[in-house]
Amino acid sequence: MDATAPPARRPASGTPAGAETIRLEGVSKVYPDGTVGVQELDLTFAAGELTVLVGPSGCGKTTTMKMINRIIEPTTGRILLGEDDVTRADPVQLRRRIGYVIQNVGLFPHQTIRVNVGTVPRLLGWDKRRIRERVEELLVLVGLDPAVHGDRYPHQLSGGQRQRAGVARALAADPTVLLMDEPFSAVDPIVRERLQSEFLRLQEAVGKTIVFVTHDIEEAVRIGDRIAVMSEGGRVEQFATPAELLGHPVNEFVADFVGADRGLKRLAVTGIDPLDLERPPVVHVADGLADARAALQTAGARWAVVLDDAENLHGWLSLDRAQGAGTVGSAARRMEAWVPREASLKTAFATMLQHEAGWVAVLDGDHFLGVLTPESLHSALRRSVEGRAPETAGAASG
Ligand SMILES: Nc1ncnc2c1ncn2[C@@H]1O[C@H](COP(=O)(O)OP(=O)(O)OP(=O)(O)O)[C@@H](O)[C@H]1O
């Protein structure tokens, strides 16, 4: 099927250095026993993007991924890595361009973390010093302290730390592509969420083309630039950005798969629209309290936002505290409930709940833009479900 996708939420600024596009053209895999692993796949994994393959067990996700690095040979069709047909490439050269991370990591148990991470550079014949320096750099990059963890064996690390070491090993020869097969499924949900966030930050830094397999739609929505939802027999039912998928599932299969709570899930991938913001009365630090009282009374409001001379957020002032003489600055309180403009609606909602606040301020840097209230959040959510809201810059922020 044709799986031409709409633009991703992280607009690609040209082809990132060190990443390559992967194109599957009419790719099918029929196993010797006649089982159809995947059929007639036309998919493009854009350079520098993280594409998630998601779908129920046995739908062909792993088959698709393993054909890219030739662990499985396609029965028909072509797979291009950049301009090269992978079925014609030298397998050793090919794997140098492709890092591979699997469930339970697959670290060699009798080798230290340092030796594990240096595996591919050693195979490529790098000199010892270069390998040592690269390993140190990678361990730091994935958040492992070389002095603490470098000489340990895999069983002496936590599941999350092993996973990080697995990612470091996959990145060792600076591949253009990372294939990740359920890499976070063996750790508990809290560690998993942390690994996902760390991984998104890492991807911001390295900008690889990533193909990521999971059967968990929550994970797909959280980390994917684009998602391919697959069904039994290796068919792509929909190939779209997370927001598009949640807002407009193309058929019942996808709607069922993304879940009845897709509206709520969409909160995490929907950004704040400045048009949603309400603008309460604004007073300034240096204003007199008498003026502030007058402003509140005129607006019929019980509180005002307090800005400093540079129009940056200072705090807020309630009518109760705006009594007597003195300046607004002396009576204002700190604003706890605020989010940056890039935050998702989910983060805004969570911040509001966390501070038991009736509203949450939205800032662009230090600059005050307005507030979200339960009412404005509700209308933003409605628009979000209808697919008319802006997407966040990345799920990492939400
Ligand atoms: N070596 C094989 N011989 C025959 N059939 C196979 C072989 N490997 C996989 N299959 C079949 O191909 C189909 C796709 O399998 P694949 O492992 O790609 O699915 P998956 O989506 O990754 O599943 P899971 O989420 O359970 O890992 C399944 O029906 C599976 O049974």
TrEMBL record:
Pfam families xref list: ABC_tran, CBS
E.C. numbers: 7.6.2.9
Ranges of residues in domain ABC transporter: 22-258
PROSITE patterns: ABC_TRANSPORTER_1 (PS00211), ABC_TRANSPORTER_2 (PS50893)
Keywords tagged on the record: ATP-binding, Nucleotide-binding, Transport
Listed GO MF terms: ABC-type quaternary ammonium compound transporting activity; ATP binding; ATP hydrolysis activity
Signal peptide coordinates: none
InterPro entries: AAA+_ATPase (IPR003593), ABC_transporter-like_ATP-bd (IPR003439), ABC_transporter-like_CS (IPR017871), CBS_dom (IPR000644), CBS_dom_sf (IPR046342), P-loop_NTPase (IPR027417)
Domain of life assignment: Bacteria
Gene3D superfamilies the record matches: P-loop containing nucleotide triphosphate hydrolases
Keyword Nucleotide-binding: yes
Top EC group: translocase
Similarity comment text for this entry: Belongs to the ABC transporter superfamily.
Protein name: ABC-type quaternary amine transporter
